[in-house]
């Protein structure tokens, strides 16, 4: 286990602790705040601006949501669905406010820990968000959806940290490329 992962796990235990109230990281709250600001800018531009100004606002939204280098560190989500995908991996749908995160759990040892979880349970995750997946700019800013393979998840009433093996993640990526 790398030093970075040990630090993340330790940080998760400290931040999340044994408290029953949900902790939402500052970075996640900042991301949500920026999303809301872009949503307001788009509404205002559509109401009062020229087509050129509306397109400028949309371009800024694309830059914010459509690149794939937003890093998450123990971001909060509430489970809304657990879907086993043809015995290859588990897709865990989570939500925080208007944002939806589809977590792809590919490590069989980590998947086994999800049998005790259900809709409404809290999960924390770390990884890199992929590009936002909505087709229209309006949906992408109002109800953004991201898919990621988290390197670390913290689950269950005991807030147990689970680390997906890099090998399992890489093997899943290779399988996905071969399917295309």
Termini Cα gap: 32 Å
Which structural class do the helices and strands define?
alpha+beta
Number of domains: 1
Quote the average pLDDT.
Answer: 85
CATH homology superfamily:
Nucleic acid-binding proteins
- Helix percentage range: 40-55%
The coarse silhouette is: globular
> What fraction of residues sit in β-strands?
25-35%
Describe the structure in your own words:
The protein is α+β, with helices and mostly antiparallel strands. Helices cover 42% and strands 28% of the residues. It has six helices and seven strands. The longest helix has 23 residues, at 26-48. It is globular and about 55 Å long. Residues 5-9 and 11-20 have low confidence and may be disordered.
Summarize the structure in short.
With 180 residues, the chain is of the alpha+beta class. 42% of the residues lie in helices and 28% in strands.
List the helices and strands and how they pair.
Elements: H1 3-16, H2 26-48, H3 51-65, E1 70-85, E2 89-96, E3 99-105, H4 108-111, E4 122-129, H5 137-142, E5 145-148, E6 152-155, E7 160-163, H6 166-179
Parallel strand pairs: 3-5
Antiparallel strand pairs: 1-2, 1-4, 2-3, 4-6, 6-7
Helix pairs in contact: 2-3
